[in-house]
From TrEMBL:
It comes from Cryobacterium cryoconiti. It comes from the Bacteria. It is found in: Membrane. Gene3D superfamilies: UbiA prenyltransferase (1.10.357.140). One of its GO terms (molecular function) is transferase activity, transferring alkyl or aryl (other than methyl) groups. This is Prenyltransferase. The lineage of its organism: Bacteria, Bacillati, Actinomycetota, Actinomycetes, Micrococcales. The chain crosses the membrane at residues 21-38, 44-64, 95-116, 122-140, 161-186, 224-256, 277-297. Pfam families: UbiA.
Length: 300
């Protein structure tokens, strides 16, 4: 009788996959960029906060999602790779515990390092963590409330930046408000477009979403509209932020071929979603260059 052996580090690999490694930068970078640009310094809070929003935050967010979406994930061909782990039920507790255990020490350190100087940062962090849990946990399941699902998902990505600004004592200006509003619309568009490819498995699993409610084609068009509006808002951020308005164009082009996709062929939008994932790296690089220009040339 042949003994089946578990490959070395298999459990660790599955836990990491559940945190969506390709998306780590999407939450860590907004916090780090907001904090550094506002304070102009590298300190312990920057390091701890970046580490928190890099891995534990994503492990909590996506791990909780993978655990409570297990039944629908069984019908989803995308699961089992970089776009999300197909978690063995035996790993569900491990993933949830790993998220909590890795997050708590960093959260405590962030609160201690931030102190009571900026109390609004505590509220923002609480909202961020609530959104992480509320998206997937039974009893709340914001991910099954059309439109609210996209709003909650966008909060996941924008709140680290808002927290970074708050804890750094940033001054609120019209340009900053326009920037955050553009970022929020980008987040809503990204979630909506990402939901399109899952229309069929979500419906089979009894999971509602913005895409199952509006239909694939209408959701793609809504995402394109949100990206376009985000680009327009960037025009009001001042120099050199207004240059970022053109960064909406690649996302619109990635989604454009699927603007009339039928619900039955919604899974073909996965091709556009994969381009979206890689576009984030290019956009991140260009945004970094703009932030450097911001520091050198002055505020918006």
């Amino acid at each position: 009788m042949t003994e089946t052996r578990t490959p070395p580090f298999w459990k660790t690999r599955q836990v990491l996959l559940s945190s969506r490694p390709l998306s780590w930068i999407n939450t860590a970078f907004p916090f780090a960029a907001a904090y550094v640009v506002t304070t102009g310094r590298v300190d312990a809070l920057l390091v701890v906060g970046t580490l928190f929003f890099l891995i534990p935050y994503n492990l909590l967010m996506y791990g909780i999602n993978d655990v409570f979406d297990y039944e629908s994930d069984l019908r989803n061909p995308r699961k089992g790779g970089v776009e999300g782990a197909m978690l063995d039920p035996g790993l569900h507790r491990t993933v949830l515990v790993s998220g909590i255990v890795t997050a708590l020490p960093l959260l405590v350190a962030m609160l201690v390092l931030a102190g009571a100087e900026h109390p609004s940062s505590w509220f923002i962090l609480a909202v961020s963590l609530f959104a992480v849990a509320a998206y997937s946990v039974p009893g709340l399941r914001f991910k099954e409330r059309p439109i609210v699902d996209s709003i909650t998902s966008s909060t996941h990505f924008v709140s680290p930046a808002v927290y970074g600004l708050a804890v750094a004592g940033a001054v609120v200006t019209p340009g900053l408000v326009a920037l955050l509003a553009a970022f929020f619309l980008w987040g809503m568009a990204s979630h909506a477009f990402g939901a399109v490819q899952d229309v069929v498995p979500d419906r089979e699993g009894g999971i509602a979403s913005i895409a199952t409610a509006l239909g694939a084609a209408r959701t793609v068009r809504l995402a394109i509209t949100f990206w376009a509006l985000a680009g327009v808002l960037m025009l009001f951020t001042g120099w050199p932020g207004l240059l970022a308005s053109v960064l909406a164009v690649p996302y619109i082009l990635a989604a454009w071929p699927f603007r009339s996709v039928s619900d039955e062929r919604a899974e073909t939008a996965n091709a556009g979603w994969k381009r979206f994932l890689w576009l984030n790296f290019l956009t991140g690089f260009l945004v970094t260059m703009l932030l450097i220009a911001w520091v050198l040339l002055g505020p918006f």
